[in-house]
Model the fold of this input.
Amino acid sequence: MRETLEKKISELQSANERKLDEMRTTVDEKLQKTLETRLGESFKLVSERLEAVHKGLGDMQQLATGVGDLKKVLTNVKTRGILGEYQLESILEQILTPEQYAKNVKTKDGSNTVVEFAVKLPGKEDKEKILWLPIDSKFPKEDFELLIDAYDQSNLSLIKEHKKSFIRGIKKCAFDIQYKYVDPPNTTDFAILFLPFESLYAEVLRIPGLFESIQREFKIIVTGPTTLSALLNSLQMGFRTLVIEKRSSEVWQLLGAVKTEFGIFGDILDKTQKKLQEASNVIEQAGTRSRAIEKKLRNVQDLPKDQSSELLGSTPKNNGTEDITEDVKGPE
Done:
């Protein structure tokens, strides 16, 4: 029994070892396969992410190149002015008609300087004379950027210093426009300073009293894109009112001419009525005379129709019916 028991235990241990080896092999295979699958998926995902990052870096490089080009454009004073001029022209084209404004206009007598754009307004006394409203775009970029950097650094001394420089730059732009382009009565007694960016215009409004002092000292109205659009829309409504007023005047003159012609027509109708009345009186007198003659001839003997026709120089055919028929039908 002991030998049999030991034999059975030995066989059971061998069987358990084989089962354990098989289970270990299966688990190793499963783990290896799962690990390879997971690692493959992870490497694929990482590769896709790296490719997306590489593509994003390429886009960032292109963007950086574009920003650099834009910075070069904004650094150059001439190209910067052209940028503001293009934006101003775009706003004018969207709101006004080509007949309501002009480009590169000499608004001041005795000066060769030309303003970028000028709006055509009717004269105060002579409606046919053009009154120019000068509009010029300015872009004081350097002073504005230094002030923004000072705001970012929260440096009060730099903010105060650059704010003074910014105010001097804006006032110099307003003085240049007032000196070069404003010339009443050829122009309005004020002009418009256009700032091409809303942030730049907002900075002017942020400084207390700057907007009002420029308007009071130089008679210059500072505008941004939105403000200029609103101002031009109000001018457009004024233009339409002037057109309606002009049309109303033309209609009033036309009605006056019609009234004059209608009076003449009434006189002609009166004369026509008088002539018709005279003709009616003559016809009535002729009827009266005809009835008097008939009374006188009432006792005269009537002749046969053949004899009367012969005496009067006409020969009737078929009692005159054929002649009447031919007169009605006409020649064939």
